[in-house]
Amino acid sequence: MVLKESSGIRSPLNINRSSLEIIKSTKFLGAHLAENFTWSLNTSSISKRAQQHLYKLRQALGGQVVLPDDWETTAEVIRETGRKVLGVSSGRRKEDKDTWWWNEEIQDSIQRKRLAKKKWDMDRTEENRQEYKELQRRVKREVSKAKQKGI
Questions:
Q1: C-alpha–C-alpha distance, residues 63 and 24, integer Å
Q2: What is the pTM of this model?
Q3: Fewest 10 Å CB contacts: which of 46, 73, 83, 96?
């Protein structure tokens, strides 16, 4: 089956005589995936960091170019690389919280704090840490004031 970009209507996709529906977008693992899915710009930096970490692991294994044949060792190397490059979540569910005190000013402050956290996560310098900690304290004060006004 050939999909033509110029045609607005697409015939259904059939696999093993089962018709599949083509959807415009979906949410998968917290990320929105659109029909015209393209790799994000961040993918290349993540790939580069993974390659660097694998290189360090190879050096620790005695400079082997090929990963060991043992499945457990290979799986552990992949898991360790994933942990180092992508990080680990807490695994806890988010609880429902009241947001009656939420406003634009607080939303902007929290967004700046989140960006500072991402910057610190990517580049662990003391300057980035101090910037993140300062924004964290400022947001905490602003939220506290907003909650006090609402009571």
A1: 46
A2: 0.38
A3: 96
